[in-house]
Amino acid sequence: MSLKMHIPLQDLKAEFRPIKSEIMRAIEDVLDGMTLYMGPNHTAFEREFAGYIGVRHAIGVSSGTDALLLAYLALGVQPGDEIIAPSHTFIATVAPLAFLGARPIFVDIDPLTYTLDPAQLQRALTPRTRGIVPVHLYGQAAHMDAVLQFALEHGLWVLEDAAQAVGADYRGRKLGGLGNAGCFSFVFTKNLRAYGNAGLVTTNDDDLADRIRRLRDHGRSDKYTHPEHGLNARLDEIPAAILRVQMRYLERRLEQRGENARFLTGRIGGGGIETPVEAGHGKHTYHLYVIRSPQRNELAAYLGERGIQTGIHYPIPCHLQGACLDSSRAPESLPETERAAAEILTLPIYPELTCEQLQYIADSVLEWTAVTP
Ligand SMILES: *Cc1c(COP(=O)(O)O)cnc(C)c1O
Questions:
Q1: Closest residue (by CA) to atom 7 of ligand 1?
Q2: Ligand 1 midpoint to CA 255 (Å)
Q3: Tens of pLDDT, residues 238-264
Q4: Ligand 1 touching residue 191 (CB < 6 A)
Q5: Protein residue whose Cα sits closest to atom 14 of ligand 1
Q6: What pLDDT score was predicted for residue 330?
């Protein structure tokens, strides 16, 4: 075994170094101009991102969570409404519903893709159901044909939580353009980052887009006119300028993540470790490279000793979070969700990993499987 390495789960400094001068110039240009929101970068980024996803509207907002809140508001979520969502996701998928008095109805996942299992939708349906929120978890699309078909049959809207899946697609169509709207996050942990909070809503619905544009900016129709109450949830000009620089590198970086993932899967797959499954219905962008083992905690500790930082996304499902206990509804248990929470482990997969580092990660995992009964 080679010398001990130190490999973090993310290496933002390594990403920043080669693009530093471009980023600094973009920030400087904004500060020279002193238009700090709704400026030229904001407008250009919305246009560029809409073109990239292939939707009519991209509405920049202050975070992924605000994107979800604004979309729920604009879709008309009311107190008492029920919204079907996976429990195996980041809490922000459903948190905004609580503030609107609505209830998330949690369903189980397909254990291969970790995304909402469409076979569970019928059981969750009630006369109060209004919409479905498929989450494109880890950078891979949910089973959208079945979700969209079910929504159509029952008159429900579909809001895609694409926070982890910028650039991923479903049967050739970029995620965020399949449902009534899509939500993105550009927080620093995601694949396109603004080095601060930022988010965006995509939609092909003109009315929905107008509504979200007003709601993100104090409910304004013009500077001093407020036909309705809104939020202060705009995308600022500095993050917009940073995002425009990041967009130039996005595709290349996603490709590199995919290559790293295929390398790891090729090396560590087939033994006692379950590696990520590509569903075959679209491009997986590997926001997170998640393996699983019934002895996850032991494996994480072993890799930690070898200097490899790992993560768990997520150890406690939403339906078991204190925040959800009163407002949500789920069957007695969600067996696949709970089993995944106990077994999953996220390995480093960032584009700047060297061949030696990737090799070291694979060797360390294999070494653990060799010494584990
Ligand atoms: C990150 C994330 C969010 C929230 O985005 P923020 O920008 O952190 O507010 C929502 N849903 C999922 C699935 C996420 O991963």
A1: 64
A2: 22
A3: 999 999 999 999 999 999 999 999 999
A4: no
A5: 163
A6: 66
CA distance 225 to 204: 26
Q: Is 265 in the pocket of ligand 1 (CB under 6 A)?
A: no
Distance 1 CA to ligand 1 centre (A): 38
Of 10, 61, 65, best ligand 1 pocket probe by most atoms within 8 Å of the beta carbon = 65
Whether the CB of 135 sits within 6 Å of ligand 1: yes
| pLDDT tens string 204-239 | 999 999 999 999 999 999 999 999 999 999 999 999
pTM beyond 0.90, yes or no: yes
Ligand 1 and 336: CB distance under 6 A: no
